[in-house]
Each structure stands twice: as structure tokens, then as C-alpha cells.
Design brief:
This protein is of the alpha/beta class and about 400 residues long. Helix content is about 40%, strand content about 15%. It binds pyridoxal-5'-phosphate. The site of pyridoxal-5'-phosphate has 16 residues, from helix 4.
Length: about 400
């Protein structure tokens, strides 16, 4: 765990003294905020004061949540939006332009893949898919129109891991920002900045929400990239330096796309942050234990969890995420029929999508998340009909193992 993480978690002061000395940041459900004078409202509108004006743009409860995340991560700025997909789409809309390309891997969360490969393509932005573990291939995909190098720190459901120090060296050499979706290992266990990530994108729906309470997303900008190198943000960089992306995001993109987080969600997710490391380390330790136990089961063809020493990504995983690379594992059964029969016998574990709820969830990705993808595309994405994905929750791990075993043996 990162130093000081736990104490920092509780140390973000309210910007103003609360009238009742509340210990929780109040939920400000107001759409608009009144000003004492024409001069005061002018200065809020032109950005000279940080006073909130309208809740699509900013809101005190959401600002407080953003500040807490900034405090924990040491980021330059944080923007909270109403889903992980909003964080991803707002970021790429801020960076991309007609004729631009984004260099990434084919192994992406389904909607991210579709956003990059379909939605942005209609605006003449190209997604270039390459093997992120092959620096020569990555370099050869980057050119003067590349606006970002993007990856997921542990891909889902393949559980592939890239050596981020190597990849960030490529990003620096080629002058492109490194953007990472870090949803699978939250900031209590992974220090993205230390591995050269310039912008971290997080679906806070997952661990941070506190047990699937609400949908949300975070853009965490470390202020480490030199935006003078960006074709699109160069002129902003002349004025705002390393804050150019934040200015573009806060002053234009998120206001125009209208996907700001709501105060109710920010309040739930602020509470979620307070128990994040407790929940994460409990779930991840159970996941490692289950991965070890399942590896011994004869009914299982193979278990995939990067925290197992015989996993091909184990060394990189350990260097980047320590002993607990997330609370998701996959395993393969002899056939698709075995997978369906296994799922139908589960009693404690829920058949559901989503990751990192407090409850354990199992799904057959090929027939669900990727169910409408053409077979050829599924193959390129390494989605197998024999794979089960398990997201491990906070139940007693022995009871989870019993449920898995009774469902395997039938
Ligand atoms: C869930 C998820 C997303 C999308 O987040 P939403 O909050 O559902 O929009 C993006 N990336 C990863 C890795 C995810 O697991």
C-alpha cells in the first residue's frame, strides 16, 4: 500500500466551515447558486473565483469528492463524471481531431473498444490496435497524428499485463501522452504516476462506489505531459503549461458533453473511498486464495490470475501491483456447455455482469458481454467460449470455495 494513503483519506478539509459542523460533506442538490453581487457572479463565470454557478459544470459535493481523490493520488487535477465511459469518452474527445489516431490494444473493455473503433471512427479518428508488449510494434504505430497511447493496466477478461515502465519510456520517446484505464487495481494499491502514466481513467462504479452503489467515472490528470507536443492542445499549453488538458476538460469538454457526476453519487462514492483499501485488500486476498485452490481442481482446464507464480505476467504484475493484482480471475472449463452448467448450479455467487461489487459475481463473457460481436472479432480479442469470469467479493472465502466446488462437481 502507498505510504500515508490511509491517513490522507480522512484529511481533506471542507472548503468552507459547515453551519452545523457536519462530519460528512452535505449533498448539495441545488442546480444553481446565488451570488451577492453582479461582480461576484461575473468573477465566477470568467473563472476568477471557484464558486459553483450551475451543477452541470460544478457542484460543492462533487468538488469535494474530486478534491479527496486529488489528495490521495497527488494528481494535478481530477474530474468526476457520471460513468467510467463518460471519463473515457470525454478524455478522447478532448484529445482527438479529424485525422488523428489513438494507439491501443485490441484487448479492451467492450464499450471502450466500440467507442474507439466505431463512435470515433465516424469522426475520422482511427484506433490502431497493436501488441502493447511489443515496443517495436507500438513505436511503428505512432506517427505525428497520434494523440494518445492508451491501455488497460490489466485487460479484462484476458488478464494481460504490460510492463508500464517500458511502455511509458516509449511514450516519452515518441512524445505522446500515456493514458491508462486503471479500474482493475485502484489507487490504494497502484501508483500510476510512478509508472509513467500521464492520465488515469477510472470506472468508480467498481471498487470506489463502495459495493455497486452508483455509476461514476474519474479523470485523474497528473500534469506530467508536456502539451506543447500535442497538435490539438499546443496553443492552450502556451498559456496554461502542464494544465492545458485540465483547462480543455474543465472549461469546455465536460460542460459541453454534460456528463458531470451528480451530488448524490459523489456523496456515496466519497463514503466508498473511506473503505476502499479495506475492501480491496480483503477481496483481492480472497481472489488469490481462490485462484490457488481452483488450480488444484481437476475439472478446471486452467486458471488465469496474474498473482499466481506460474502466470506468464507474474513478474510484471508483482512489480506493478504487489501481491494482489485485483479481485478478478478467470478459469477455463472443457466446453461452453460445462460453463453454462456450472453457472446454473451457483448458489451463493451471483450470475451477473459488473466487477468489484461486495458480492461475488460470475459471468460467461463470450455469450454476454461479447455476445453480439462477430465471431472473427471475438477471436481477435481472445474471447474464448470456455472461459468463466469471477469477480470476488467480501464473502467468507471458504464459503465461496464451497459454492465453486459444488457447482463444478454438479
Ligand atoms: C466497467 C468498466 C468501464 C466502464 O465503466 P462504467 O462505469 O460502466 O461506464 C471501463 N473500463 C473498465 C476496465 C471497466 O471495468
Amino acid at each position: 500500500m502507498k505510504n500515508e494513503y490511509e491517513s490522507k483519506l480522512y484529511q481533506t478539509a471542507f472548503p468552507l466551515k459547515d453551519a452545523y459542523n457536519a462530519l460528512q460533506m452535505p449533498v448539495y442538490t441545488s442546480v444553481a447558486f446565488e451570488f451577492e453581487s453582479a461582480e461576484a457572479i461575473e468573477s465566477a463565470f470568467v473563472g476568477q473565483s471557484a464558486a459553483p454557478t450551475y451543477s452541470r459544470i460544478s457542484n460543492p459535493t462533487v468538488l469535494y469528492f474530486e478534491n479527496r481523490v486529488r489528495n490521495i493520488t497527488g494528481a494535478g487535477s481530477v474530474t468526476a463524471l457520471n460513468s467510467g465511459m463518460a471519463a473515457i469518452s470525454n478524455t478522447f474527445i478532448a484529445l482527438a481531431f479529424a485525422g488523428a489516431n489513438i494507439v491501443t490494444s485490441r484487448h479492451l473493455f467492450g464499450n471502450t473498444y466500440s467507442f474507439l473503433n466505431s463512435t470515433l471512427r465516424d469522426f475520422d479518428v482511427e484506433a490502431r490496435f497493436c501488441d502493447m508488449n511489443n515496443p517495436t510494434e507500438v513505436k511503428s504505430c505512432i506517427d505525428s497524428n497520434t494523440c494518445a497511447l492508451f491501455l488497460e493496466i490489466i485487460t479484462n477478461p484476458q488478464l494481460e499485463i504490460v510492463d508500464l515502465k517500458k511502455l511509458s519510456a516509449v511514450a516519452r520517446e515518441m512524445g505522446v501522452p500515456l493514458i491508462a484505464d486503471t479500474t482493475v487495481v485502484p489507487f490504494c494499491a497502484f501508483d500510476a504516476k510512478q509508472f509513467g502514466v500521464d492520465i488515469e481513467l477510472v470506472s468508480s462504479t467498481k471498487y470506489i462506489s463502495g459495493g455497486a452503489t452508483s455509476v461514476g467515472g474519474l479523470i485523474v490528470d497528473y500534469g506530467t505531459y508536456d502539451w506543447q507536443k500535442s497538435k490539438k492542445l499546443r496553443s492552450l499549453a502556451e498559456k496554461f503549461g502542464k494544465l492545458a488538458f485540465t483547462v480543455k476538460m474543465k472549461k469546455e469538454i465536460h460542460r459541453n458533453l454534460g456528463a458531470y457526476m451528480t451530488p448524490q453519487v459523489a456523496s456515496q462514492q466519497t463514503s466508498g473511498l473511506e473503505t476502499l483499501s479495506l475492501r480491496f485488500f480483503r477481496a483481492a486476498a480472497s481472489c488469490l486464495k481462490l485462484a490457488e485452490e481452483l488450480s488444484e481442481c481437476k475439472e478446471i482446464v486452467s486458471v488465469n490470475y496474474p498473482g499466481l507464480p506460474d502466470n506468464p505476467h507474474y513478474k510484471t504484475s508483482n512489480a506493478q501491483f504487489g501481491a494482489y493484482p485485483g479481485a478478478m480471475l478467470t478459469f477455463d472449463l472443457p466446453s461452453r456447455e460445462h460453463c453454462f452448467a456450472f453457472l446454473n448450479r451457483l448458489k451463493l455467487i451471483k450470475r451477473a455482469t459488473n466487477l468489484f461489487d461486495n458480492k461475488s459475481l460470475a459471468i460467461h463473457p463470450e455469450s454476454t458481454i461479447y455476445g453480439t460481436f462477430p465471431a472473427e472479432e471475438r477471436k481477435k480479442m481472445n474471447i474464448s467460449p470456455t472461459t468463466i469470469r469471477l469477480s470476488v467479493g467480501l464473502e467468507n472465502p471458504d464459503e465461496l470455495l464451497d459454492d465453486l466446488k459444488q457447482s463444478l462437481y454438479g
